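Continuing the series of single-chain predictions for the mutant panel. This is the parent chain; the variants come on the following pages.
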Amino acid sequence: MLKIIQVPHKVLTTPTGEIKKIDDKIRKLVYDMEETLVAQVDPQGVGLAAPQVGVNLSLFIMKPSLKAETEVCINQHILKIEDRKSRMDENKKLEGCLSITRIWGPVKRPQKVLLEYQDLTGEKHLRWFTGFKATIVQHEVDHLQGVLFTRRALEQKTVLYEEKNGELEKMKY
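Parent structure:
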């Protein structure tokens, strides 16, 4: 199992590099990342980007529920978003991050994104993600661009919360 890097490590705020060749080393990294993600239970993780395990490459995995298949996205780019303001406001939920433990904050995100990416075989895909998966995709793509959810929350002038003794307390900053 891999160690999850915590803030303020520089790898978390550095844009990633493209994966030139999907080989056994990349497949092993994905396997190890999946094992690491599945092991996260408090809180449960739903996505993990390579920088979160100290690897500065354009790769993330997502597993929106325990029974879901793990999806692998390599060299991904969001090509289009469906940006209906009212939907974004309705769907503002608390986000957290395995690299920023016990901190939560609401982030407004579009509920539909078109993602271009490669899978583990190198095949290219063009796919719309909606709802919770769209949120995960945007959170993980932000990681690959060196942007943490706390930055998005602060840009949107929302409140961040710290979990203390099972309760959420507003952070002062």
